[in-house]
Amino acid sequence: MTAHGLEPFIRDLPKAELHVHIEGTLEPELLYELARRNRVPLRFRTVEALRAAYQFHNLQSFLDIYYEGTRALLSEQDFFELTWAYLERAAQQNIRHAEIFFDPQAHTERGVPFNTVIRGIHRALEEAIPRFGISSKLIMCFLRHLSADAAMRTLEASLPFKDWIAAVGLDSSELGHPPEKFVEVFARARAAGYLTVAHAGEEGPPDYIWKALDLLKALRIDHGVRCLEDPALVQRLVRERIPLTVCPLSNVKLCVFKSLEDHNLKTLLDLGLCVTVNSDDPAYFGGYITENLLASQQALGLTRHDIYTLARNSFEASFLSIDKQQRLIDELDRFMDAHAG
Length: 341
Ligand code: HPA
Ligand code: ZN
Prior knowledge:
Elements: H1 6-12, E1 15-21, H2 28-38, H3 47-52, H4 59-70, H5 76-92, E2 95-102, H6 104-108, H7 114-132, E3 135-143, H8 148-158, E4 167-171, H9 183-191, E5 195-200, H10 206-214, E6 220-223, H11 231-239, E7 244-246, H12 248-253, H13 265-270, E8 275-277, H14 282-285, H15 289-300, H16 304-316, H17 322-338
Helix pairs in contact: 1-15, 5-7, 8-9, 16-17
The protein binds hypoxanthine (HPA) and zinc ion.
Hypoxanthine (HPA) binds near residues 24, 199 and 250.
């Protein structure tokens, strides 16, 4: 595929996003506006200084800045505006469906009530259906650096809003916080009717992926790029068609890979794994899905068929009903026919 015309092709391609932290979509401009409105003092004096500080050497160095950014979010309206800004961008990139993480503990730990967070996010997601034609699901993540008890309390606080939340997940500092810490919380979440996903194999070893599958019954693995270190694990992921929500620009920014040229996305695809491309924390990592796909295409020589497969996988790996998945895949196929050659 020639570089010419690639950007509009990738941008307009119908796709789903399955790995985006809503707090990670907080662009510096909105962060500044909210901080000013809420009189929250910031360490960085300008938007430019803030952006310049987005240099990370591992996951933790990012998380420190990410949690600092959340301090600007206080009211239901703040969470609405945060989510709405993401949805506007998603619409521009023809994201047809988004499964969005939120980190309630990043807010309740600061004294912001659970219901303030979820009401603001939910209202934006509802309004996006008629406004942008974007469907969505919410995934509530537990912060793995906090205790299992704290996760259990968060799960309990979520129950009155169960109908607004499709799944639970696990994020934050991976190393030293293996899946087994949250076995009981996830069992309780499944019993309450939640689906389950987990970040695993981003910085952590393949063993964390096995445990996310076997102990937490994760239906998707977020990141999972370290699976290649374990051939038996790869075999299982292929055989059971367990999706990996891969985030290429994130992996480079957090030094999981030295450069995009070193990323294993193309290898994962060629092995027949159900991989998808996602943005993770786009305000911090330099791009949304289009930028991730474009940069990956250029660095790894992805073919037109690879890009189609990634988009198709994004619908198949979603928590939409088979009917809704098929409708979106049909839309994707019509798009491909209209952009043949
Ligand atoms: N990994 C773990 N936790 C996170 C991430 C991530 O990429 N983004 C936001 N919280
Ligand atoms: Zn993530």
